[in-house]
Amino acid sequence: MKFIPELFRERVMRHPDKVAIKEESLEITYNELEQFSNRLVSLVKQEIDNPFTSMLVVMPSSIRCIAAMLAAFKAGTIYVPVSLSFTDSRMEAILSSNFDGLLITHEEDVKAVDQLLQKFGVSARMLITVTKENKLWVKRAGEQAATLAESVLPGHQGREVHIDGGEACYGFYTSGSTGAGNCVIGMHKSIAHFVEWEISHFDLGPESIIAQIAAITFDASLKDILVSLCAGALLCIPDPVTKTNAALLLEWIKSNRVNVIQCVPSIMRNLLNICRAYPAESYLSGVELVVLAGEMLYNIDVLNIKKEISAGAKIANMYGATESTVLKSCHLIDLSAETIDSTGIVHVGRPISDTFLAVISGSSLCKIGEIGEIYIKTPFLTKGYLNNPALMEERFVQNPLVSDERDIVYKTGDYGRYLAGRNLEVLGRLDSEVKLNGIRVDLSYIESEILKLEEVYECVVKLEGPELQPELVCYYSGVVVPGSVMVSKLQPVLAQEFVPRLFIHFREMPHNLNGKIDRKVLQQEYERHKAANDETEEALSETEVALAAIWKEILHISKVGRQQSFFEIGGSSISAIQLTARVYKQMNVLLQLNDIFLHSTIAGMADLVDKTTKTDYVKIPVSPRQQYHRLAPVQRNIWLMRQIEDEAISYNLHAAYAFEGEVRPDLLQEAMTLLVRRHEILHTAFSVVAGEPVQYVVPEDEPEMHVPVITTPDQASVEAILKSEAHYQFALDRLPLMRVVLIRKGAGEYILSLVASHLIADGWSMGIVMHDFITIYESLVLKCAVSLPPVELQYIDYSEWLNDFITTEAYEQKMAYWKKQLSGSNPFVTLREEFVRPAVKTYNGGEVLMVLPGELHAMLQQMSGKSNVSMYMLLLTCFFVLVHLESGEDDMVVGIPNAGRGRKELEPMVGFFLNTVPVRIRDIRRQSFRSLLLQVKNALLEADKHQQVPFDNIVTELNLKRDPAFNAAFQLLFVMLNMPQVNNLAVTSVKNIRKLETETVIARYDITVFVEEMAGGSLQFKFEYNTDLYSRDNVNLKMQKYLLLLRMLTEDEQMPIGQIAIERYLGLSSRKGEMTATEKF
Prior knowledge:
The chain is an alpha+beta fold. It contains 31 helices and 44 strands. The model is unreliable at 151-159 and 1066-1081 (pLDDT under 50).
């Protein structure tokens, strides 16, 4: 019998110059690999003669790793692949029981290996380090430094040893309940038997291109590597990032023309998910053979694979165990000949050569259809477990069918049955049958039924919970489906007691190093889910009760638990600001925004409130009325810009609302008049006195709002009217500075257009105006008192208070922060322009809309809660990364609007409170997503502490050089909208009130990103851009880059930003249309 070294050498002799292995930009021929591995053999045999010595190989899958594997087989040592990601318990077990002093690693990990040996107090007799140039450095016990092993015998003189087929050749660790795992020792004859069988059975040869997908520490990697090398095929190895990203892996499979894929079904399902989303790509059209093993395969999987692979391709479903030497049965499905039902489990066929698969019940072989336990009988088992006699006795047992002689078989722990033709159907683990309330429940059967649902891509059903109150839990990936809907879909096909009552969704099911579903992660997610439910215990102390009431009001929820995180149940940066204001006013405790993040539960916050010194709430005073009043700093800036710029429209604010019902124009007019009298700023005008702009209040009895009514059923006319209204030119020295027009489209169908000067309102104010107007109108229709609370303050009170604050020492301290923070900043960083920037800034705008995919939104929400950051912080972090990637700049400033309503009494007021805060981030390239997120979080919290300084005062104080083509300080704005909504206002006189997207887009910055939570909880992004700098397609591409960055953040928050090469994704993303984009001009 030929063993692996000889089988490989035969291929070297036949195809010496053929490429054997290809990885990223490297490749090696069969002859070069032979020479390289022989050099290692020579080096190892100079030092170690014991044929049972284990060789620990600490390297990822690579040419160097495979050369070390071949060297171990040739030298008669035991190849043991080790990953630095192993748990401490497993690593300790390896080093204490399976380490004979011989270790091979590559130069990238040599320091980590040294630290590992020191950590566990062991030393290496020989530590071999392989460089990127395949040079060998050796460090022996007692030596201080490694030496270059160039004195090694030439490769062709490598000293192989005589191999006995029964000797050990490899060791792989399987999972174990202790975390250390169990080392299974393979034999030369057994692995050679399997390799020769697979090559022959699947007719593999030099034309085969085989993907190395399995983890190098999983015995399935032997199936990829040794089969390929002994067949004379090309083995292709993806880089680690590609291997774990389904989209990248498919691109890699296609570009490398891979025609043989061997993996577990769950990995194939992940690939199929991408294929289904992008059918035009035909990623797997060149694949001729798919070998699946390690998990249950379902007929629906086969049908899905059949749609993607080439017409004459084949799928093999195989079965075995590490202990039985890789795989021991095969069902080869000829897709061109067989018809496949969409339901049920795919059987695993018949045993491979020299193997018998016995289904036994008691001491008898089962008949066809009878269920029993599966045993494997073959002379090509492994040697069993290293240093675990108890487990050996439990699994390697006397054949239950034989009593008169010693006949050791492997007891799999699986149960199954024979089908017609003695094909074997594996039904699952013996422990997949559980008892629930005294009823025997088959978990694998439940899983098979759930997988028939088109929304479910992959699932695991487990019995979870305490022994006295267990429950069936379904973990699944695919489309997010409410649990109640899942139950209703399953009730017709499953008995009541078999229907899970808890469904936990994963964007992708978690997998361990072996590629199988990681059930420990499932358990952790269940515990997290239950802990979150347990956290809903009600508030205890008086302080907790008061805080809970405030939380409910702000978050619009009816129940909150004392251990729930503010951010996990809907809190945002803006609502956190509102929270600090309410706590200050109602409890006389002044909390900083950072306190909300550090003490994000009711219990933690209550403890902080109780320990914090009470501070009397200092209200903004009512200012004595005079003929003229000072402008607030932001008003002053708008007024000055209006004098300089021709584009008055850029300082208008326009909103339009559609609604249904019958409108009485006389009451509409009266409602608007009452509204104007309610908010003083709505009957305020502007003038110049002694060279200074001032504001003055027109007496309440003077202003009467004239509301024209225009009737037109034509949509084009409606759009023209709205565009004209948005461009309305206000005279600032007289009323009105807000204009209202009612458009009657048809019977009971109206649109209300409101346009106001930014001098008297911001976006938040427009929501208040519409809310108050509808409420007043409703009261007039119903002939009842207006149900609006009195307005405590008017805008002039705020502007006078703010002007006084600017003269204080506290203001100077806050200004000092901004001077230091922005010193030396570059105000011109922006997203890469497509067109030449005009010499003078323009405001021509367009916009592209995107709704964030629901599953990605859910992942971001989960990440936000776990990381104790707001959703805004996550989204802004990715935006900074996008700007860095597009501009190449490592130090940048982005504008962040602050609502300016950190006091409760300011929330119902109309006026311009918005203050834009410049947030500066540096050293982006050298950080990971995670560290940048923390920097952004800290920058936002610090900015909030100093947000009372008006932005225009900062610009003036810094004496920033003005360029007419640019804005001052920054060119990009990132906005999370969280404003009063009127869509769900409970009124009877009109109905279906909804805000319209108006057609006129005014681009005040190069690009402004608006993020808004829509009705139903979805997250909408709007990229508003200057059309003189960017085209729609260009902005759409930027949006897609941003979406990819969000996905990358959820997949790997430790990813170094300097290593992100997002352009490699663009061929995939820009073709896929991950969002539907629309443009408005």
